Amino acid sequence: MNRFMYNSYPQAMYPAPQYYRNEDVQSKGTLMFPQHVMYTTSVEPKFIEHLIQHKGLAVVITTTVGKLVGTLDDVFIDHVALVVRGKKHHIRLCEIVYFEKADEK
After folding, report:
1. What are the residue boundaries of the structural domains of the chain, listed by start?
2. 3-state SS class at 105
3. Percent of the chain residues topping a pLDDT of 90
4. Taking Cα atoms as reference points, which of 85, 97, 84, 82 lies closest to residue 44?
5. Distance (Å, rounded) from C-alpha 64 to C-alpha 50?
6. Strand pairing report for 87-92 and 96-101
7. Which fold has domain 55-105?
8. Which three-class secondary structure state does DSSP give residue 10?
9. Residue 16: its pLDDT value, please?
10. How much is the average pLDDT of 61-85?
11. Is residue 94 classed as helix, strand or coil in its secondary structure?
12. Mean pLDDT score, 94-101
């Protein structure tokens, strides 16, 4: 295509004109979520088992960001739920460096 270029900048050109279609432009399929989606997560069975043993107890979880002290509410395949001062925090397992039982005060 031989088009006029404004100050030698090709990005300053006007976009190509849109051509009209004679057929229906709406998609023939229905709008749905993709059916074949694969999610992957690293699973550490022993670490998850140790976390489950401390479920309901006061723990200190050290993450890559810092420490959280609270009650371990639940353990899932990819994260844990920790209640800190009445507020539930969901922490990804891949971000946990280590955890320990909290000192009773």
Report:
1. 55-105
2. coil
3. 54
4. 97
5. 19
6. unpaired
7. SH3 type barrels. (2.30.30)
8. helix
9. 59
10. 96
11. helix
12. 96
Residues comprising the chain, all counted: 105
Whole-angstrom Cα distance, residue 103 to residue 22?
74
Residue 2: its pLDDT value, please?
54
Instruction: Please name every residue paired with 80 in a beta bridge, in sequence order, or none if there are none.
Output: 75, 91
The pLDDT of residue 40 is 77
What CA–CA distance (Å, rounded) separates 85 from 40? Answer: 32
The answer to whether residue 101 scores a pLDDT higher than 80 is yes
Quote the pLDDT of residue 4.
53
Q: DSSP labels for 15-59?
A: PPPPPP-SS--S-SSPP---S---------HHHHHHHHHTTTSEE
Token representation of residue 9:
């900048």
